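Tokens for histidine kinase. Go.
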Amino acid sequence: MLNTLSGRFLILTTVFVMLAEVLIFVPSIARFRVDYLNDRLERAQIASMALLADDMLGTDLEAELLRNAQVLNVVLRRDEMRQLMLSSPIPEPISETYDLRDAGAITLIRDALKRLFTPQNQIVRVIGAPTRDAGRLIEVTMETAPLRVAMIDYGLRVLLLSAVISVFTALLLFVAVQRFLVRPIKGVVGYMKRYAAAPEDARGIIQPNAGVSELREAEEALRTLQIELTQLLKQRERLAQLGEAVAKVSHDLRNILTSAQLFTDRIEMSEDPRVRRLAPKLVNSITRAVTLCESTLAFGRAEEAPPALRMIGLAAIAEDVIESERMAVGDGAVVLHNTVPSELKVRADPEQLYRVLLNLVRNACQAIEATRRPGTVSLSAREEDDDWWIEIADTGPGLPAKARENLFAPFRGGARAGGAGLGLAISAELMRGHGGTLELARTGPEGTVFAIRLPRSMSALEMSAG
């Protein structure tokens, strides 16, 4: 129970209430002492009035009056005359004198604590003002033992009452905490356990209903987290299923393309000049397709293979991309330009860079073809001090806002109807593997520009890999 929230509330409440009562105890015990002394002064004054009414009282009666007042001597000052009204033998000298007429709170508390912690019986003088203007002052001499006994008795009763109040308050708080905090928290924990056991079960998603605003916020945050996590788990499951399907398709497709490679060997021996010119490009395309299938199968088992970086001529790869896409678009309305300088070399994996450029150029051509208007796609590059920059620009309609929000997110960044949204996500991942970036430079009604940045220094690549 001590490790529970309500149990600790119970203990802390008891301790704090007792601490508050102790702070109240000190002035209250001082107040009790003042009341006790004033009561003795009042009794002594009544006894003095009785003597003034009949000054022929006997010695026995005087002693009885002093016993009833619980004092040893009574001095009453009326006008300017100080008169010993009642007296009895004093067993020892007077140790302290207390004047209650002008004593401050600090003085009263100090004197009370001193008396409480002084066990010896002492004789003290107490001075006060008579009630009902019966004189200028009244002074009594008394023993302190009865005062100390009364103070201890009063203090014990105060502490006992404080303990009862503390326990009662703590129990009430315990019940309140159980009802308004612990029970809702246990409900949240129960939802979390049910959701963890079966994330696909919608009944495990919490329905916020707490009355406490902080708990309500926690429930709403948990509900949002559960909904998002459920969607991610479903998406991951579908991706896993899709990965299995792609792996199977890639395996079969690789076998088919391998057979196609055998046929291209015979095509290369053709005497037709056009066939001999196109045969190498067909061979390169099939080789890249086989490589892609093998990479896909490897991706299903692990991650994308790290790039094999080396210095390569960018113009040749750019020309292969443009020629491949020209054959795909035919004599349509899309015009493709390659303005990459012939002498420009970059550090990259040629196969992966080819895949990225082909994907970007093909996306640009498809965007223009969808408008049914003529347009151009340009592939250019430049060299700077720290980086190489490659740009793919088109005069298409620009990317819609929905596509820009999740442009590089798989299955969410597709810009055209029917697209899976994987091309840009894979291309961005491949460029990150190079230590570079793929970003959307600009887009609008005048067209779209994608920019690839490749670092020139190897240290940048090593930092990116780290």
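The two ends are 49 Å apart (CA to CA).
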